[in-house]
Each structure stands twice: as C-alpha cells, then as structure tokens.
Amino acid sequence: MNEVELNPIDLSVMFEFADYSDLQRDLAHGRERHMEMSVAYYLGKLSREFHSGELDEDMLESVDETLFIINMDNDYTLGFQGDQEVKYADVVSGGQGMTMIVRLTGGRDALIETPMIIFQNKDCMYPIRGVPDDIPGVCYRTGPKGWNDTLIFPQWCKENRVITRDRADRTRIIYMDNCSCYNETPELTATLQDINAIIRKLPPNSTHLCQPCDSFVIEKIKQEWRTEWEAYKLEMIKQNMWSVGSRKLLNPGNTFFLKLAASSV
Fold first, then answer.
1. Which residue intervals define the domain DDE-1 in the entry (predicted)?
2. 224 in the same domain as 114
3. In 3D, which of 127, 154, 164, 73 has the Cα closest to residue 254?
C-alpha cells in the first residue's frame, strides 16, 4: 500500500483551521451564555420589583416594531405562503419598506393600542400628498428608510392616538429593545416628561426571549397581514391589474396599507 506524505505546511493549515473553528464555537457559546445570564438577571429584578410593590402592572407597557417589505410581484415571479413547490417566487428587489410600531399595555385591561406606520420617504414629508392621516385605528409618519429612528420616535411619543399622559398622572414604564433609535436625545427626554413616561431597555439581543410584544402580538399581526395581503394580490391577478410595461402588479397605494395595518391589528 502506498504511503501518503503530508506536507508540514498542510498540517499546519489544518490545525489552524481546527483551532479557529473551536474558537468560533467557544465565542458563540460565550455570547449565548452571557445573553441568558443577562435575561435571568433582568427577569429576577423584575420579579423582585413586582413583589415589593415598586411596579404597578397597570402601568407597564411593551413597545416594539416590525418591518414589512411590500413587493409588487410580477406575473413571472409570484408566490404565496404555503406553496409546496417553487413555480414562482416573490420579487426581492425593488420592495417598498415600511415599519409598524406596536404598543402593548399591561394589567388586567391589556390592549394593543393604535399602531403607527412609518412609510419610506426620503424627504420625510408628512402628511404625504393624497394620503390623509385620518384612518381609524392607525396613524403614520415618514422617514428616509421607512424605519424607526431618533427623529421619528419622539414624534411617536407626541402622537395622542398612540400614547397619552395617564389620567391619574401615574408614570408609564415602557419596555423596549436595546436599539439606538431609543437613545436619549433632548427632544425625546422632553417628550417623555410631557407624557410622564420612562424607558427601560431590554437586555441586548434578547427580543425572542423576553419581549412579549414581539413573541406574541407582532407575530400574530404579521400573520394576519400576510393572509390579507396575499388574498388581495390574488384578487388583483384575477382582475388583471398590472402596471403598464413593468409586468408588476399595480401598487394599491399607502392608504391601502394603512387600512391593512388597522385591519391586521
């Protein structure tokens, strides 16, 4: 049997690759362990504050956002949820991004409050021409990326349809992700004082573990959104509602998506 000679350089590369893979696994495990410990500390502190009476469950709230990508599929690439084979696929490029901010109140009378949609608009125009902000059950603002940021979030706090000062002047405690859009700015600080609210940030990268607004509420909203949106796309196909020359479905417009948001919630 012929012996196989291994070049020492090849062996060195192999050992270095193995060491690097082990290091990656160790780092990933360390990050996961640190996140779990952070969440455990956070939940323990929350429990102690409840038992001591420091926290009033009626004044605890959760706020989170979710991004929707709206694709106007063409007749060659059209997909629906639950397809068993990929005859068609949703268009990825050219999608219109928009964000929904959702607020969930606590206590025995917990409610999903009026959501705010953030439309993509490079000039941050509000209101958008031809899009009145008067649809029941929803409101909107605009931003260059269609996402929440340090300029839009204070506007959310000022919008009476989504949040107001408590009638008994109790302090609202709002739990949110550890996201830069919630970082304190002079405008945000003043706005929070106006509505008598404080923000508590959740541990980093832990939304899936301790953010009830994301884990329960937003997931249901997104499911309802997808169901209604796909039904509408199918109806547009039946009605042959294509944009001239682009082979894309006609864009139903921002007012349609505001109504869809209100219906989904």
1. 115-239
2. yes
3. 127
Quote the DSSP letter at residue 97: E
Cα–Cα distance, 141 to 155 (Å, whole number)? 8
- For residue 154, the surrounding DSSP H or E stretch is helix 152-158
The whole-number average pLDDT for the span 136-162 is: 95
Average of per-residue pLDDT across 235-239: 87
**Is the same domain home to 126 and 215?**
yes
Count of structural domains, the chain: 2
Contact 81, 226 (CB under 8 A): yes
E-strand ranges in the chain read 60-70, 96-105, 116-120, 139-143, 172-176, 197-201
Backbone angles phi, psi at 60, to 5 degrees: -90, 135
Regarding whether 229 and 100 lie in a shared domain, the answer is: yes
Q: What are phi and psi of 69, to 5 degrees?
A: -110, 115
Domain that holds residue 203: 57-264
